[in-house]
Amino acid sequence: MRVIYNRWLPPGRRFAAINILGLCFIKRPHKPSESMLRHETIHSRQMLELGYVFFYLMYLLEWVWQLLRHRFNNFAAYKAISFEREAYAHQDDEYYLQHRKAYAQWRSAKNNI
C-alpha cells in the first residue's frame, strides 16, 4: 500500500488517514502509527477481495443504512459499518492479515480468526 502525505485528504478534522483505491492518504502533520497503517491495509485487502466498485458500493449502502439506524449520527454510523468494525477490531494485531479469512467483515467476531 502506497502512503501519500498531503494537506487535503481526508477532509475534515476527525480523521488522519483515508484509503482510496488502495492508496493511503495521510493529512499532514500526522505521522502514521503501525495500527493506523494496518487499519488501512485491512481496507485494501477488503477492496481486493470485493473489487473496488463493489467495495465502495457496499460501503456507501451500509453507511446510509447505519446512518438511518443511528438517527443521523455520522460517527456512530461510520463505526457500525462492517468494514470499519473489522479494521478497528484487528488494527493492533500485527499477524491478522496473515490469517484473515476471506470476507471476514461479514463473519461473526468469533470466526474472524
Radius of gyration: 14 Å
What number is the mean pLDDT? 92
Count the domains: 1
Share of β-strand residues = 5-15%
**Which term fits the overall shape?**
globular
Helix run count: 5
Biggest sheet statistics: 3 strands, mixed
Order of helices and strands: EEEHHHHH
Strand line-up of the largest beta sheet: 1-3-2
Which consecutive residue ranges, at least 5 long each, have pLDDT under 50? Answer: none
Give the termini separation.
23 Å
Question: What's the total count of β strands?
Answer: 3
Please state the oligomeric state of the protein chains shown. single chain
Helix content: 40-55%
What this model shows, in words?
By secondary structure, the protein is α+β, with helices and mostly antiparallel strands. It has one domain (2-111). Helix content is 49%, strand content 12%. It has 5 helices and 3 strands. It has helices spanning 34-50, 52-69, 74-80, 82-90, 96-99; strands spanning 2-6, 17-20, 23-27. It has a 3-stranded mixed beta sheet, with helices on one face. It starts with a strand and ends in a 14-residue tail after the last helix. 15% of the residues are buried. The model has no long low-confidence stretch (mean pLDDT 92).
